[in-house]
Amino acid sequence: xxxxxxxxxxxxxxxxxxxxxxxxxxxxxxxxxxxxxxxxxxxxxxxxxxxxxxxxxxxxxxxxxxxxxxxxxxxxxxxxxxxxxxxxxxxxxxxxxxxxxxxxxxxxxxxxxxxxxxxxxxxxxxxxxxxxxxxxxxxxxxxxxxxxxxxxxxxxxxxxxxxxxxxxxxxxxxxxxxxxxxxxxxxxxxxxxxxxxxxxxxxxxxxxxxxxxxxxxxxxxxxxxxxxxxxxxxxxxxxxxxxxxxxxxxxxxxxxxxxxxxxxxxxxxxxxxxxxxxxxxxxxxxxxxxxxxxxxxxxxxxxxxxxxxxxxxxxxxxxxxxxxxxxxxxxxxxxxxxxxxxxxxxxxxxxxxx
Length: 354
Fold this sequence. Notes:
Layout: H1 3-17, H2 23-28, E1 34-37, H3 42-55, E2 62-63, H4 68-75, E3 86-89, H5 95-103, E4 109-124, E5 131-132, H6 134-141, E6 144-146, E7 153-155, H7 161-164, E8 175-177, H8 183-197, H9 201-209, H10 211-219, E9 227-229, H11 234-243, E10 248-252, H12 253-257, E11 263-265, E12 267-268, H13 275-280, E13 286-294, H14 304-311, H15 314-317, H16 333-345
Parallel strand pairs: 1-2, 1-3, 5-12, 8-9, 8-10
Antiparallel strand pairs: 3-13, 4-10, 4-11, 4-13, 6-7
Helix pairs in contact: 3-14, 6-8, 8-10, 9-10
């Protein structure tokens, strides 16, 4: 019996032992790695998958872009061949997702941080250069904003960028961005909008006294057409920016890096979104990227251990690795070494600490 067939038989055993229904489905097995999740991590995972498929005896992994939230839901639905082995995420897993995983038998999850990414606010290459503060971003995109009286909130009246800040272009606010299922959306509201929200003293004070109200003010994006949900396809946003020179789009730095002939990133608080500025921590809207793996599937799904080894190798995510050529900001060498050790040892995250 070949190594691949042996793995499929073992998977069927695992599926049956964990209560997965459907003998025919279990016997059918799966001879490839199945990955879902973040549209931001998608291009990095795809590059690793393609190299892994070309360089080994195993099939090229299947990678789908479902958004971070959507991917984690699929991932947490259960163990077995009908469920993903890996989910990519542009944010850390939430406690509610850990609980959902646990309730469905997904009890050992390996967290793999792969590097860093910046969230950019970009426009077409021939459009105006802009320097946005995080306060500008909040005042342009929040559903409700502070009024003239302390403690007063009003529906966002700002129609143009000049209404927000006279130094900005006098054009209608139109920002194309990710949907609520996206980790990029989560990170954007936390890093950019909340960062600007905190410039209002009385709102900042709410964080301690009324956290739910604080979050509602700082994280709720307007729904009157100024912000347009453009789905999980960041390439589509780039195309729409080319067609509309007055619009801005929100996506990860890697897409900016791969489309510099089409779009450019706005400065945020005076810092341009560059590889070095994100790596140094100077760019204020940056975040770590992850993927999550089911330990129960390792050594059962053919090639999964090898794929993890490839993704966490210096040739992939190192300072001179092929992922940095695609826009991934590498972690410090010491951090990479520790995470690679965790991957090698299949060290699961502490479920209770998330």
